[in-house]
Write a structure and sequence with these properties.
By secondary structure, this protein is mainly beta. 9% of the residues lie in helices and 19% in strands. It is found in: Cell envelope.
């Protein structure tokens, strides 16, 4: 079996294996006695694995450290769990920040701290969903990847202002509502194409599509 098909098989296995069993089929402690759940040791052997998704499995605790050994990952989906604490840079090879991801979904967990290290003009990230967590950081000077098209940052504790560079992106979907952002929404690009619900319930954000700044 060549690398392409072995990777595809591993991806399908990881994405759908958990759906075959009642939640929680994968224990929060990655219990090696649970024969229904793949162990961290077995996952780390999938050197060509590019996509990892453990969604809606009721996992809790910190992001598991074995992710640092999955060096070919370009897509991670850990949505709808109970992961908590920060995403520590030490968990992955020179941190997640230096890995080239195209899609990240950590939504609907209890994660804290900052996530700005995931972003940068030269990153390959296209889809980023960090919504409904407890992240808290200054958005003002974050540089976003040029190819980013999906940005969900709603319902957190993000503060600062919306960077002007957001107007240069070809965003198809963006939501920064329910945060602590302030000042005028930058004008241009696609930022005014979104409904006011993509921006409302911030500390003092203003300008189209919200009410005019005073």
């Amino acid at each position: 079996m060549n690398n392409h098909f072995s990777t595809l098989f591993a991806t399908i296995f990881l994405c759908f294996f958990l759906l075959s069993f009642p939640t929680p089929s994968l224990s929060a402690k990655w219990n090696p006695q649970d024969k229904k759940a793949p162990s961290p040791e077995s996952l780390t052997k999938l050197k060509n694995l590019t996509t990892l998704c453990f969604t809606n499995t009721d996992l809790s605790g910190p992001i598991p450290s074995f992710l640092s050994k999955l060096r070919s990952l370009d897509s991670i989906n850990l949505a709808y769990n109970n992961f908590s604490g920060p995403i520590p840079a030490s968990l992955v090879p020179k941190s997640f920040a230096n890995a080239e991801f195209t899609s990240l979904d950590f939504s609907r967990n209890k994660l804290e701290g900052g996530i700005s290290f995931f972003f940068g003009k030269n990153k390959t990230l296209q889809i980023a969903d960090f919504s409904r967590n407890l992240f808290e950081f200054n958005l003002s000077k974050v540089e976003f990847p040029n190819n980013l098209v999906f940005l969900e940052l709603n319902r957190k504790k993000i503060f600062g202002i919306l960077p002007e560079d957001l107007t240069k992106l070809q965003l198809q979907l963006s939501n920064v509502s329910y945060n602590r952002l302030c000042r005028k929404i930058p004008t241009g690009g696609r930022l005014q194409n979104f409904e006011e619900t993509a921006y409302f319930h911030n500390l003092c954000l203003c300008g189209a599509p919200l009410a005019a700044c005073k």
